[in-house]
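re: ur question from the group chat, yeah i did fold both. here u go
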Amino acid sequence: MSEKIWFLLQFKPNSHRLAERNLLRQNFETFLPMQEVTRRKSTRFVSDLRPLFPGYMFVAFDPQTAPWRKINGTFGVSKLVSFDGKPKPVPLDLIAGLMRRCDVAGKLLPSRRLAPGNQVKLLTGPFANFVAKVDTIDSNQRIWILMECMGQRTRVHVTADFLQLSD
């Protein structure tokens, strides 16, 4: 069995459930990451699930064998994002990272609570298994760590997906 290839599609306004249901009926696998949004409604706060990427979802198929052209004619779908008439694959590591951060229903889980001063281990890249210290986390959730490398401290920017709290 070949590895899944994921593509991006745009759905019509407020039609993500309709598009997802109709794509599943046609045996296309979909992934729609959702996040809980709290908003004020009159005098109370209301929470509901909204797509993480408003207007877009992911769909998996093999472009060589699947009848992918019928996706554009699916109720609820606006269009499959394409360049020069061909759908462009989404990097698998991006999809895998999103899936790791979601539960089985596609709801985005709260990020692991990292705080300045935490000892962390890098999971991938040339510094995999290096232990570092969280220096700062800015307002956009970018994480800066301090690494000890060849006797010098180096400040590096990483995302939470590449870090694990160290024991």
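okk and heres the other one u asked abt
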Amino acid sequence: MELKNEKEIIKILENGGVIAYVTDTVWGLGCLPDNEKAVKKIYEIKKREAQKPLILMSNEVYNLLEYVEPLPKLACKLIKKYFPGALTLVVKKSKKTPDYITSGMDTVGIRVPDNEVFKRICEIIPGHVLATTSANLSHQPSAKSYKQAFENMNGLCDLVEEDYGFECKGLESTVCGVFGDDLKIFRQGEINISLD
């Protein structure tokens, strides 16, 4: 698919801007991960606590692999089963992932949403990865529609991209940490994990 304003999206992100977009779960807010100023802008827009990390999302898992240490077998199993989809995997980060994204922690969340608009945005942008969080003010409910995202973010972020009819389900992703053979659920969301 093609978006109406692809050039504008690229220009905004390359110039340190922040955009809002639909995913398969809730609306997201993101920027290019190597731009510290843009990441700080996300925290300012959301009034987000500094100790809360952002996650990295892309249209393909291989775009995210350079941001993380070699994945444990269990993480690979979950990726095969649930990507693309409503699972955020928290794993050890690599040196490529800046501390300003992970709030200084040595782990990072990665996800591949199952949404055509989001996938297209990642296809066209430099690096194909977005540092991202939900498109709402901290401690407010997540945006579940273009209208809500626009009300939350208009005048704060640089662009709220329309959803072209590819709506989100409205339930957040499940956040799951994988450390060696250990699995820890940080947030129960859309997906109930089973290892069968």
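fwiw on the second one: The domain at 6-187 is CATH 3.90.870.10 (DHBP synthase). The chain has a mean pLDDT of 97. idk if thats what u expected
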